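Q: Can someone sanity-check these two? First one:
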Amino acid sequence: MIEQFVAGAKGVGRAVRGCGGLLRYLTERLHARTAVQMERERNAHTVTVLPLMKPGMDFFESEPGGRTRVIRTAVQELSETPAKEIASS
């Protein structure tokens, strides 16, 4: 019984060694899918933050890998004509 288990374990070990390329591929694919999912989540949350930002405000978002994304809102230009003059005309 133990000999069969040992033989089976050796067979599994050989099979895993033979699939090194496949395991590397699957690992890279998982990493890429995770990165895509994180970017989708980041974009979804950015959409919720944008309406809360005041004009001229900067939003910095950084990742553990060192990448930083900066979102800047436009500065509203002040009208040359004061509001009181517009209201009285």
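And here is the second, same format, sequence then tokens:
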Amino acid sequence: MKRRIFFAIIVACFVACKDNQNEINISKEEALKIAQRYDISGDSVVISFETYIYPKTSVAYKKGKRKLVYWKIEKKCDSCGIIQVDAESGKVFMTGKYNYIH
């Protein structure tokens, strides 16, 4: 019984790890090129790779999508932009600007 459970865990991990590699189609460099189209460039640009896990009650989860992997690119200064780029498709799904109140 213990061998079957251990084997099932290894198979599940192998499948999950394999799936994770296939979902990132947009590299960090490609995401930065997309950001340049939104005037986000220069020395103080911050880029991070993030994952959002959909709640089980969400529409996306019910349609079979379990998580969203994306690049968050921002430049933190007054009137500077922020975007989020889907790492699977390369589509920009969020744009914004920082507005500091002095």
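A (reply): Looked at the second one. Residues 4-20 have pLDDT under 50 and may be disordered. The first helix runs from residue 2 to 22.
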